[in-house]
């Protein structure tokens, strides 16, 4: 006798094509959330895949024992390591990656790593020493490890010194952080 087996998939977008392959050689392609097929009693291995969605294949087995069977499977995203490499900060300075979804990652070392699903991401960065800045950026994860460079810099500002009480044409000097500089009018 044949008994209906229904496999319901979650974790993929509606309308996404996925394939269910059984150990007896039967293979079914679906663009819906479920697949139904008649099977005789027995134990079956299966592999479900959604190659266009960046999802990890689901592998398992089930047994038909004289009754209809409903089986649920959950596709999970394939994750790739993303490493942020910082330059420009003094050693030991804490810095933080801010993602659009609210995730924050902080480190006092030169790198921050996270595993992420395929897709595009935007981020901003900050440092505990607020005198350093970096513009952040965007990147795309596409099924492979990725390195993203984060360059911190200190902004430069023009400062104008206007002396008073100095006769016109008289050279004068200015000391900044221990460095003397003679300034001629």
UniProtKB/TrEMBL annotation:
UniProt name for this protein: Thermopsin
Organism: mine drainage metagenome
């Amino acid at each position: 006798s044949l008994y209906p087996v229904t496999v319901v998939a979650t974790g993929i977008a509606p309308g996404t094509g996925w394939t269910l392959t059984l150990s007896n050689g039967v293979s079914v392609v679906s663009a819906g959330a479920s697949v139904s097929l008649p099977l005789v009693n027995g134990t079956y291995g299966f592999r479900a895949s959604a190659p266009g969605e960046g999802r990890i294949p689901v592998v398992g087995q089930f047994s038909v024992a004289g009754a209809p069977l409903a089986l649920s499977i959950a596709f999970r995203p394939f994750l790739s390591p993303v490493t942020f490499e910082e330059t420009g900060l003094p050693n030991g300075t804490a810095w933080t990656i801010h993602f659009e979804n609210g995730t924050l990652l902080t480190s006092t070392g030169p790198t921050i790593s996270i595993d992420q699903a395929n897709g595009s991401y935007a981020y901003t960065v900050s440092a505990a020493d607020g005198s350093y800045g970096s513009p952040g950026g965007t990147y795309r994860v596409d099924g492979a490890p990725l390195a993203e460079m984060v360059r911190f810099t200190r902004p430069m500002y023009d400062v104008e010194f206007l002396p008073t009480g100095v006769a016109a044409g008289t050279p004068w000097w200015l000391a900044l952080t221990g460095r003397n500089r003679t300034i001629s009018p």
